[in-house]
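Quick question, first post here. What does this chain look like in 3D?
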Amino acid sequence: MTAPHAEPPAPTLKPWRGWLDAWAHWGTLVLVTGRLLAWACLPSSYRGRYWSALAEQLVAASLPTVGWYAVLSALFGQMLIRIVVVTALSYGLTPYAVEMVVRVLVLELIPLTAALFVLLRVTLGHGQALRQLRASGAFDAAMRAGEDPLRLYVLPRMLGAVFATLLLVLVSAALALVLAYLNLYGLTPWALAGYTRAVGQIFDPAVTLVFVLKTLGCALAVAVVPQAGAFERTPVGEVRVLVRTAAVLLVVELLSLIGNYY
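> Answer (accepted):
Ran it through. Tokens below.
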């Protein structure tokens, strides 16, 4: 007697699960980013209890980071500037030393390093903190009270991280320009007019616009991507948060390179 014919196994979605998860993640990221930017454009988000939460996050994100980052940025900037200046002098390219320092250090490296510093020091733990708030019922309590949890808990953290990134970029860019002048001309004030003219020629309107957009893009990437993981169905580990944030930063960097050099 022959054995009954076995039914073939039903098809599963395992081969497509990775793609579906990726689309769900990017969809969640776009949705959360859009809602946060909409709340950030409203003046009412900066009043009353929202201002208290925002002020707390601004201090918590910027105060512990600015000192250490200024020291590390000065050391790294001095090392890189010295290498560029010595190389330019050895090849007789002294007139181009200022442009090389500004374009390599200020335009390209400083926004990325500031964003990564804020990511590692500030925003990497925001996703875990938000998941704990959701588990404790704080999000449900806010919704029952007629509040948007994104506006109450996520928006202050996002704005604090963006402010911290912009502050670090401003501090490190100022330090880099001062160190570049000292390495090129020393303590004399007589070269200041030519130096400022050379820097101003580099920062034309197009380059300035790309630099501002790149800085804002990097700041939003490290501020939103770690928090968006808290709204996914499955928990997101720190390694995946780092990979996703690095992917967004890479896209921002590629767009800035296209804007500056093509």
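The mean pLDDT is 86.
DSSP finds nine helices and no strands in the chain.
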